[in-house]
Amino acid sequence: MAPSLYSFSEETLQRLGKFRFSSARAHSMEALIYHIDTSSYEIKAETDVITSLEDLVDEVPDSSPRFILLSYPITLQDGRKSSPLVLVYFRPQTSTQEGKMLYAGAVELFRNKAGVNKVLDIDEEEELLDIPDLLQH
Hints:
Shape: globular
Largest sheet: 6 strands, mixed
């Protein structure tokens, strides 16, 4: 495997693992926002756990991509409860092409490190409020 341009600190990897396991039992939404440090290419968490979609919309920047690790409890069509772990690749239309390319190169690495199966590409803040509907499909 070729070396990666991007890196994760041990602290970030531990936090990813802890979030993945704790959010599987959560009864409410939980999210962490991650950014790529442009000088070191290290992927870092930038917030504490966010517990509402409205707060998530408030926290993401208007003009810079971010990765959002999200656990959102849903009820499946057969009545079972599920809290899927999802990677939201947030890339606002107002972000620079350079920023979009920086994050595009790290999507699969982040997906693998976080252990998620589903990736949602979102390019407008308002779409973040539609996540419950997107997860039902």
